From TrEMBL:
Protein name: Acetylornithine aminotransferase
An MF annotation (GO) of this entry: pyridoxal phosphate binding
Biological process per Gene Ontology, one example term: L-arginine biosynthetic process
Organism this protein belongs to: Candidatus Schekmanbacteria bacterium GWA2_38_11
Cellular component GO terms held in the UniProt record: cytoplasm
Gene (UniProt): argD
Highest taxon, organism lineage: Bacteria
Species classification: Bacteria, Candidatus Schekmaniibacteriota
Sites of N6-(pyridoxal phosphate)lysine modification: 254
Amino acid sequence: MKREEIIEISNQYIMNTYSRMPLVFEKGRGAYLWDFDGKKYLDFVTGIAVNNLGHCHPKVVETIKRESEKLIHVSNLYFIASQALLGKKLVESSLVDGRAFFCNSGAEANEAAIKLVRKYSKEKFKSNDRYEIITMENSFHGRTITTITATGQEKFRKGFEPLVQGFKYVSYNNTDALKKAVSDKTCAVMVEPIQGEGGVNVPGEKYLEEVRKLCDEKGLVLILDEVQTGMGRTGKLLGFQHTSIKPDIFTLAKGLGGGIPIGAMVAKNEIADFFTPGSHASTFGGNPFVCSVALTVLEVIEKEGILKNCEEMGEYLTKKLKGLAKGFKFIKEVRGKGLLIGMELTIDGKNVVNSCIERGLLINCTMNNILRFLPPLVISKNEVDEAVEVLGKALVEVSEKS
Ligand SMILES: Cc1ncc(COP(=O)(O)O)c(C=O)c1O
């Protein structure tokens, strides 16, 4: 099939929920994608922080082939070996004790966390009034009705009212505002270690520790949404591991399955115990196939020095981007951690993104003016150099036209 034909069929038969670029990809390897016309692209989007190990990592492909020939799906009515091992691995890599619930996406993982804290708070404190969750302005937690309500951005909620009761928003990186917002109704605080969709907003170094302290003082559950920051993206397996704290609950999705859909909600035992048979479920959640793939993703992260490369390449890319920024008045700031990096512009980022695409580099823009760089964590120095060279040319082009 030709690219134009695919776009035409898609426009006719697929719901118009995404503003798509006119690109159709056919093949991916490592940091590169090839489109239907055979053009090669360096991928600094990675399915929005999904393909952390690059496209079609050989170990991931091997597991997919092997496991799909053995067992793809059985119901959660039965015990599942790879699910048990994945739960163990996630808990042992993160909390003192805990249990996992598996689902299929970030929104579902957050939905599960929200349900769990409501049930925990109702039953533990024997109160129907302790259900409110405080989330942050400019946060992003998903697209279900509950998670758009949790999301502190009006644009995602508009048109879908009535929303779910029990959410309150405060400004990010502001513990005073958070303190003021806590009431007798509050049961939890939900926060991203770095806001991804909200513009790659990195909070102060002590922010998460202060939030943890407040939660401890007030008996609130701390939920960390690690859907974008998790699975090595910031240079540690989980974003909170840059700090001294542990959350009570965290959620994962995106990078966990190496491209195969999976989400996870992990909670410490004291809270996890409040989910009992019948409390929550997902038909596909944690099936044998996807959990085997996620186990391989974790094994590759451990054995192939992925976190170290992410940290080193993150520093290298940040330095190079800061160098580029000096040459353009419309670049306001470069910020991020590991390979979750944003470049804030004082102009719309669309033209820079388009110029990069024409030159064979895929980057993304969030909040209209923040270029976001999400290369695979296996990226090499040469590939970073290639991307920065292309970006530099795109910035010159946009600067000459504006
Ligand atoms: C922090 C965060 N939470 C939740 C989600 C929603 O994940 P999903 O699209 O898999 O439902 C996203 C997606 O971008 C995210 O970045």
